[in-house]
Design a protein that fits this description.
Elements: H1 3-16, H2 20-26, E1 27-28, E2 31-32, H3 35-49, E3 52-53, H4 72-85, E4 89-90
Parallel strand pairs: 3-4
Antiparallel strand pairs: 1-2
Helix pairs in contact: 1-2
Length: 93
């Protein structure tokens, strides 16, 4: 399950004062048995669509030698992966 869906289900469980397990049982593939849960998830996804950032371009001089730029590309790559796993889109991709 992706991070966005997990966050949605956690928030719905809190809002509805029900267990996360109940919501998980209602899930059928990408949808839910409940029309209102499907609607809420569609709205949740639409709100996440606006989460889009632009990362800096990789540094061509990042040769891995120990200097100020050492590890720059690795850091950008790690940030990229973390953002993607949290449902954020990357503009310059």
């Amino acid at each position: 399950m992706d991070k966005s869906r997990q966050q949605f289900e956690e928030e719905m469980a809190k809002y509805l004062n029900i267990s996360i397990e109940f919501i998980s049982k209602e899930r059928r593939g990408d949808r839910y048995y409940s029309y209102s849960m499907n609607f809420a998830f569609d709205v949740w996804q639409a709100s996440r669509e606006s989460l889009e950032i632009e990362l800096p371009e990789p540094n061509a001089d990042d040769s891995g030698s120990p200097n100020f730029y050492s590890g720059y590309n690795t850091a950008i790559s790690d940030i990229h992966d973390e953002l993607i796993s949290n449902g954020v889109k990357i503009k310059n991709e």
